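Figure 2 data, in text form.
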Amino acid sequence: MKRILLPVEETTRSLTALTQVKKLFAPDEVEIVLLMIDESVDYTASREATEQAMDLLEKKLDLVEATLEGYYVIKKADMGKAGQRIVKCAREFGADLIVM
């Protein structure tokens, strides 16, 4: 079974990538790792601000997951530079493919 990393954000481009994954792969063929990253919170942010940002990301990931009924989904919320976090997540979860 392939594991697909799908970094998502609030753009139509992300929705297009999500739609393409659903068109190309059946639920029994893949596991999907949904990744959402907040680049606006940096290391100087308070703990409360960081927790609020993470909570918001997790809620958004829940909404995206709801569109993937039947698929096995792993959700990951993270903060930092998107490129670095995508590479880190791909390694962490052993992604076979990254769809953006």
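Caption note: The two ends are 20 Å apart (CA to CA).
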